[in-house]
Write a structure and sequence with these properties.
Elements: H1 4-19, H2 21-25, H3 29-37, H4 43-58, H5 65-87, H6 97-115
C-alpha cells in the first residue's frame, strides 16, 4: 500500500492536468474568458497548456516524477495566484470548482515532491 499511494497521487494529478487540455487547445469559451481576463489570451493559454501536458507526462515517468511535480507546482501556483488576484474563486458560476481543483492539484503535487525529495537533482 505504501508504494501504491505515490502512484495513485501521480495518476490523479496527471488526469487533472491532461483532462483540462481539451479546453485550452480547443479555445473553449471558458478558457478564452479566463486567459483574456488575465491578459494572456491566446499565447498564454497555449503555452500553459503545453506546460501542463509536459508536467502531466513527466509526473508519470518514474525517473522524472520530481520534475513533473515541480513544474506542476509552478504552473498551478500561477493559476492559484491568478484566481486570488484577478479572477476570483468562482468563474462563470462554476461554484469554485476550478479553484478547488487547482488547490487539490497543488497540494497533491507538493506531497508527491515531498515523497520524491531524495531524488531531486540540482545542476
Amino acid at each position: 500500500m505504501k508504494n501504491a499511494l505515490p502512484l495513485v497521487l501521480r495518476i490523479i494529478v496527471a488526469i487533472i492536468l491532461i483532462q483540462t487540455l481539451r479546453f485550452k487547445f480547443t479555445a473553449h469559451p471558458d478558457s478564452v474568458y479566463i486567459f483574456s481576463k488575465v491578459g494572456l489570451e491566446p499565447y498564454g493559454r497555449i503555452v500553459i497548456g503545453i506546460a501542463e501536458l509536459v508536467a502531466g507526462v513527466l509526473i508519470l515517468i518514474p525517473k522524472t516524477v520530481w520534475i513533473g511535480a515541480t513544474l506542476t507546482l509552478g504552473v498551478i501556483g500561477g493559476a492559484i495566484f491568478m484566481h486570488i488576484t484577478k479572477l476570483g474563486v468562482e468563474i462563470n458560476d462554476d461554484g469554485g470548482i476550478l479553484f478547488i481543483t487547482a488547490m487539490l492539484t497543488f497540494i497533491l503535487s507538493a506531497i508527491i515532491l515531498w515523497i520524491k525529495r531524495k531524488e531531486v537533482k540540482f545542476f
